[in-house]
């Protein structure tokens, strides 16, 4: 790896991984981080030159080289964020050292430590300082967090116009949630003139990157057909995607669609989506699951299961019990 700068990222993903996990050597996370970080910086430094060369000569980088770049960035990301995932912050000192040297990724990490009170006392003012430094280095996550801070007034005076500006920079860099926020800002005229067409554009951008809330927004745009041509098929496509990605609103709408739509009616699928929601303690879904078991909708009829679920529904209201008697429900009365 050290014999030639051209090979720095071809082998660094493996060598860094070996140091990280002690494969053939002693565990040395500092060394692993140094290797990953230097290789990433090398890639960033040469990326613009490669792009110009490719454009002028109509050639592409060798496939193996590209694959090694991807593997390296994958390992680097896991190394950086595994401590957040596992709630271990042993490399905080390593991050602060690299942050002070100007590494945007470490600066973002330190900003988040201050913002969420990870390893150190929560300090939104300090978080803003680090996010700004990281943002100046091109980190789109820091740009997004600055947009969030300005939109709610965390560590700064609330300023929706500045929030819009930071969200826009982050979205231009490819941050899906920043695109989603821009869609919301355009939709309701926050920090910018209301523009539903622009809102749809940014919602769609976020939806295509996997943002569940924006997928549901896009679905509703197609269902309503006010700012884009009405298209039930596209509405259903995006609603289903949003449901799969975890949007509770989309899951409700999809279940209702399968239950009542004359073309795509599928009571079994409706039951499964309602059951998914009921298992998350959604009271409406709990009631509907009880009804499905009572009437045999999408599942085998079972008064035993119906009683279990309707009792859960009644209990979920605590002292504010709904005006519904168990026997009346089991005999066919609806709430």
UniProtKB/TrEMBL annotation:
Pfam families: Sel1 (PF08238)
SUPFAM superfamilies (alphabetical): HCP-like
SMART domains for the chain: SEL1
InterPro entries: Sel1-like, Sel1_AlgK, TPR-like_helical_dom_sf
Similarity section: Belongs to the sel-1 family.
Name used for this protein in its record: HCP-like protein
């Amino acid at each position: 790896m050290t014999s030639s700068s051209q090979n720095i990222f071809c082998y660094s993903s493996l060598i860094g991984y070996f140091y990280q996990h002690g494969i053939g050597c002693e565990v040395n996370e500092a060394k692993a981080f140094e290797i990953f970080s230097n290789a990433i910086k090398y890639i960033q430094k040469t990326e613009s030159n490669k792009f110009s060369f490719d454009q002028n000569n109509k050639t592409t980088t060798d496939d193996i080289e590209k694959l090694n770049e991807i593997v390296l960035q994958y390992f680097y990301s896991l190394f950086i964020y595994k401590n957040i995932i596992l709630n271990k912050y042993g490399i905080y000192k390593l991050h602060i050292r690299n942050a002070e040297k100007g590494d945007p990724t470490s600066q973002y990490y330190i900003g988040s430590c201050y913002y969420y009170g990870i390893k150190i006392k929560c300090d939104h003012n300090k978080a803003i300082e680090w996010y700004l430094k990281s943002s100046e280095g091109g980190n789109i996550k820091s740009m997004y967090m600055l947009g969030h801070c300005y939109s709610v007034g965390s560590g700064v005076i609330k300023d929706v116009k500045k929030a819009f500006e930071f969200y826009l920079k982050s979205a231009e860099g490819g941050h899906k949630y920043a695109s989603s926020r821009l869609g919301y800002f355009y939709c309701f005229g926050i920090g910018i003139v209301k523009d539903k067409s622009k809102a749809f554009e940014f919602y769609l951008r976020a939806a295509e990157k996997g943002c569940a809330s924006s997928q549901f927004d896009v679905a509703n745009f197609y269902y309503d057909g006010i700012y884009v041509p009405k298209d039930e098929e596209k509405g259903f496509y995006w609603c289903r995607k949003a449901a799969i990605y975890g949007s509770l609103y989309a899951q409700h709408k999809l279940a209702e669609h399968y239950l009542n739509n004359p073309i795509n009616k599928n009571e079994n699928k409706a039951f499964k989506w309602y059951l998914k929601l009921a298992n998350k303690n959604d009271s409406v879904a709990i009631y509907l699951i009880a009804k499905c078991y009572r009437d045999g909708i999408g599942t085998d009829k079972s008064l035993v299961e119906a009683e279990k679920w309707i009792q859960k529904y009644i209990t979920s209201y605590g002292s504010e019990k709904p005006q519904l008697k168990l026997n009346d429900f089991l005999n066919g009365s609806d709430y």
